[in-house]
Design brief:
With 210 residues, this protein is of the alpha/beta class. Helices cover 47% and strands 16% of the residues. It starts with a strand and ends with a helix. The protein binds adenosine-5'-diphosphate and zinc ion.
Length: 210
């Protein structure tokens, strides 16, 4: 099964992608994590991506499309995958269609902007493996340390309040049109992501039939 998770920054797509990945045993592909890794390693496209990411803007379509294409060509994607953070623009969705990739379902995690603003301030991410946490809603077992790899959990640079407003704006202008794009293809399912994480996870699993 090939799935897409759609949602505003901080809506919880990453968390839900992890849940589905474990339930269906298919890889979670987070373009945000891949880009952060590239920035950390100082690769050529990492350097290009950094400025856009730090300011809350999107990285250019050609860079992310290239990354995605390479990633889904890997062996572990043969049985399916969950895209977390891709596509984020209509041209990215069109590129996916042009690659001949069949998408089975698009799950939109819907959360009002006000809730997003509150949530993002408590978000932490593992500097080792990219797993996400929240100080209040999804704390790691040991404060500051990742449950999965023991890495340090940190605040992302683009989770500063002003940058979050910019990212929300970008989401509404550039990414939200994808709801229409996939609803016309009869693939969109909306999950209300406002309650507790465990509640949202139940709804997500139901939406993918797991
Ligand atoms: P969130 O979903 O919380 O906004 P992500 O980790 O998915 O965060 O993405 C962080 C940043 O990485 C984005 O703000 C953007 O700059 C960049 N990025 C990730 N995925 C894409 C994409 N598909 N297209 C363009 N930029 C992307
Ligand atoms: Zn980790």
């Amino acid at each position: 099964m090939n799935l897409i998770l759609l949602g505003a920054p901080g809506a919880g797509k990453g968390t839900q992608a992890e849940v589905i990945s474990e339930a269906l045993n298919i890889p979670q592909i987070s373009t945000g994590n891949i880009l952060r890794e590239a920035v950390k390693n100082g690769t050529e496209y990492g350097l290009k991506a950094k400025e856009a990411m730090d300011s809350g803007a999107l990285v250019s379509d050609d860079i992310v499309i290239g990354i995605l294409k390479d990633r889904i060509a890997a062996d572990d994607c043969k049985k399916g995958f969950i895209l977390d953070g891709f596509p984020r623009t209509v041209p990215q969705a069109e590129a996916l269609d042009a690659m001949g990739v069949t998408i089975d379902k698009v799950i939109e995690i819907s959360v009002p902007d006000e809730t997003i603003k509150q949530r993002v301030s408590g978000r932490r991410v593992c500097s080792g493996c990219g797993a996400t946490y929240h100080v209040e809603f999804k704390p790691s077992k040991v404060e500051g340390k990742c449950d999965k790899c023991g890495g340090e959990t940190i605040i992302r640079k683009d989770d500063q309040p002003e940058t979050v407003l910019e990212r929300l704006d970008v989401y509404h202008k550039q990414t939200a049109p994808l709801k229409d794009y996939y609803s016309k293809q009869g693939k969109l399912e909306t999950v209300i992501g406002q309650e507790e994480v465990s509640e949202t996870s139940k709804l997500t699993l139901k939406a993918v039939g797991a």
